[in-house]
Structures are given as C-alpha cells and as structure tokens.
Amino acid sequence: MTSTPQTHSATGSAHPGPGGTRSARPGADTGQGRRRAGITLLTALAPATWGTTYIVTTHLLPEGHPLFAALMRALPAGLLALLLTRTLPWGHWWWKALVLGTLNIGAFFPLLFLAAQHLPGGVAATLGAAQPILVALLVVPVLGERLSRWRLTWGIVGVAGVAMVVLGPEAGLDPLGIAAGLLGTASMGLGVVLTKRWGRPPGISSLTLAGWQLGAGGLVLLVPTLLIDGIPAGIDGPAVLGYLWLGLVGGLLAYTLWFGGIRRLPVTATALLGLLSPLVAAGVGVLLAGETFTAVQLLGFALALAAMLAGQVAPRPRIALQRTSQPEGNPIP
Predict the structure, then answer these.
(1) What residues does 15 pair with on adjacent strands?
(2) How far apart, in whole angstroms, are the C-alpha atoms of residue 213 and residue 198?
(3) 44-53, 95-104, 170-179: lowest mean pLDDT where?
(4) Residue 291 pLDDT > 80
C-alpha cells in the first residue's frame, strides 16, 4: 500500500525545495537514520546470538549428535511459533515456506555441524563469513539489483578480518568439511536472498514467518535425524538448557529478528551483519576459556567490525551537475 507525501508543513515529510522541487525536511533524514540504526541493532542481535552456538554445543550438548541438535533447534521453536500465532501458510506459501525452511534451516544446520566436525572452528567460521560476498553476487540475478561493489569489497575485507581472528597454524583443509562449509554458506545465502524477494504475505509478522521456516526446516530434518543420528542417551540438565537456548534464543528469537531485518534493510547490508557470529564466538572463547587475542587477531577483529559497519551505508550516488550551475561560456560537454 502506497501513500502520497503530504505537502502541509505541519504534517508532511516533504516540502517544496528550491526551484519547485520537493526535498526532505531537515529532520526527516535524521529520523529515518535513527529508525534504520535501531532496526540494524535489533537485527544484529541474531548473528550475535548465533555466535554462542559453538560454546553451547561443545560444553552443554551430548557429543556425536549434530542432526539431533539441529532438529531441536528448529522443530520445537517452529511449533511454538505456530501455537503463538495460530497461522498456517496458505496457497503458494506452503511451497515457499518449505523452500525457505530447507535453505535457511533444514539444509544449513546439518551442513554447519558437519563442517564443524571435520574442520577446525576457524576454518568453518571463515567459510561462513563468505556469505556476504555470495549474497552481493546473488542479488544481481535473483533481485535484479546492480552489483554493489562497495558491499562486495567490504565483504572481502570482512572475510579477511575473520580469518585473521580465527585461523591458526593448526587449520586443516579436510575436503568433506570444506564442501559442507561452502554448501552451507551457499544454502543460507540463497535462502536470505529469496526471503528478501518473496517477502511475506500482508498481515503476517516476522514471528509467523520464522515459525513457518523453522517448522518446515525441522520437518525436513526429522527423518534423517531418526535414521542417522537417533536420540542421545542420558540427556541431562545442562543439555536441556543448551537445547532451550538454541531453540528459543538462537532459533525463534534470532530468526524473528533476522527476517524482520531482511524485510526492512538492504539484503547485502543485512548479510554483512553475519560477520558478528564468528567474532562473538571468538570473544566468548576469550571470556570463558581464558584465551587471549594476539596483535594480528585484534587487527582482524577491527577489520571485520569496520567491514560490518561500512557495509551498513552505501556511498552517495554521484549527482549530475545541472547546466545552470556551470559558469557561462563553459557548458557541460
């Protein structure tokens, strides 16, 4: 639904500028900037939360059951969202929810855990940090947008920064782990871009959309989990807390914020917020495991943060000079 800007100075957000053209009121850009900053901060909470996944998985959950962990992160949260919203998909949104749930949840989660099993955490994190680069490229054919060289460049800088933080001399290059990491990055990257393209039906909240995708992804994971992983024996109290954290905070809350941000922000800028995930994971390791950052890691941390922040803004387009602004006798060629 579109609306026409009001021309009244008391109520409108635009007013006639010099030459009869309309220009934004002085406070309009500031207000929009503050709203966008608030949305960006809320959206950033999602990848920041995902940065705790590694520490929760390794310290609280039973070993050797990655598919079960992915299932518990997705399906209960999706069912809870459906109970809260009491809204099921309809029409073409049945297959769209299935596609998005598979890309963002059902395929991404197990590939993520598989990469973590076969690669040092730093290598897996670096592969995941490449998602902004993939998104910057995918928006061209999928969304019909022009290639943002600005955000593509900062995506590359972000990967380099994350690599400096998390890669170490013990980093290995297991082929299966590399393949899983790249496929997982591609799966969620495509899912993010399609989420932007398809949006959501009118009147549907981000919580509902998150519930649809988590539920669909959980259903995709159900049979493989039972056939391959099974249910861990002896799930204790810490494991229950870990599953609750991954499902309610890292799943339902994080994806509600994430999909809300994708809807309101440029998708390439949103993808760059994902750099927070490996940075938070490294920071948690310093706080809880007594690790320390080297000078190179601190530089990489600063580079990744700079890339994430720079990617939230786009350079102003060059405005063509008007002929009337040129000195007489020196026309624009």
Answers:
(1) 23
(2) 13
(3) 170-179
(4) no
Query: Is pLDDT above 70 for 13?
Result: no
**Extended beta strands in the chain, E state:** 14-16, 22-24
Question: What tokens does 54 get?
Answer: 């590694």
24 phi and psi angles, rounded to 5 deg: -65, 145
Query: What value does the mean pLDDT of the chain take?
Result: 83
Residue 212's nearest CA partner among 43, 91, 68 is 91
| Residue-by-residue DSSP string for 38-68 | HHHHHHHHHHHHHTTHHHHHHHHSPTT-HHH
| CA angle at 17 for the pair 16 and 22, rounded to the nearest 5° | 55
Q: What is the pLDDT of residues 218-254, one digit of tens each?
A: 999 999 999 988 899 889 999 999 999 999 999 999 9
Cβ contacts of 114 within 8 Å, gap of 6 or more:
66, 176, 177, 180, 184
